[in-house]
């Protein structure tokens, strides 16, 4: 009887274990051999980095060093030139044109009654479902992350402070109608006194402390930096790295926008932001660039601190690193200081991967999409592909195993507004049928719209083929009230989809 009793207990425990196991989760032995992930997001970081050719005496030694130990994409583009929809796209693996998330959306509403996203598995969740311990701090989704996405959360960063008692230069309204446009946090100056008061420094501290711990599972660590998002405030020592006499202003042509369609001008109507003409007349252009470069150098230093901690940890030789930004940032190009456009300096952003099984110091010039981060990380970590991903893994390209026949990247800004970037050309199509076309070989600053030039008829037709045919209506919970054009477009193109 005693033996039968013991056998019954054993069978009960076995059945209980079977009922509570996660079918997607690997065995402990499988999980233990998989690499960790360090997932670094930098807000509003454009391509003015040393490893991407540098500009205006930029100083980014730590990002440059990280690029040298992995694969750098010199022609990577966001799916939307705005924080909220760009990050929602990366974390869901879906295009804005598929989800209708064209504007800002609360983190907890990304997965809502929207048929495209209501049962989507977010990138960090996919890792957790496959045996990873997930951690995250800072700006990863638009604010931080939906509730429960991370096993350990350092929380969202509230605001972009610390802030001085009064603004230094820019009042946040500019020449705008305050009731229509709202107030930008754009301003620039040296503040606060020390790095330790900056949220990004505190986020790096949080990650550094956790890199010193022991884990029984592989980990996914998300780290979201705020700077160089406005306001462009960091301590004085970072400004000192960038003396004004060494700064070169961005390429600018006063009549640049004379040949673009009306919708392009409506989207670029940003009077709450400093205009380039104002920056020239006021003498502030170099000061704005200096502040931006100071913020970039500050974040670069925080990345260096984290990388030093990783290199001194038990995980130095078994961690996949990805560094990305949600979009670029214009520093006077096309008439303003903002992202918010389908032109090159707004869509182009840094993307790099470093991993034990990747080449070192490789630069890839083919256009790629931030949408590819999700599937690429899965393949790098030996996880099964997620069938809902609309992006393609970049691992074969990084290893030199395949080359895309017609590489391209799609950026979407509002419904039916798309930019297509190939290796040489950019084609932009707007909702009213207006279009732009640029030849980067002859016109790297996109100053001359060649859409009516018959010499490019074939190239234009080829890029038109990549314009998304699915253009979902605006997600009811997504909005961009900062810009009247998008308020009007959402009102015209309400819920549902097509």
TrEMBL record:
One Pfam family, short name: Sulfatase
Domain named Sulfatase N-terminal: residues: 35-382
Cellular compartments per GO CC: cytoplasm
Record keywords, A-Z: Calcium, Hydrolase, Metal-binding, Signal
Keyword match Magnesium: no
SUPFAM superfamilies named in the record: Alkaline phosphatase-like
Family: Belongs to the sulfatase family.
Protein name (Swiss-Prot/TrEMBL): Sulfatase
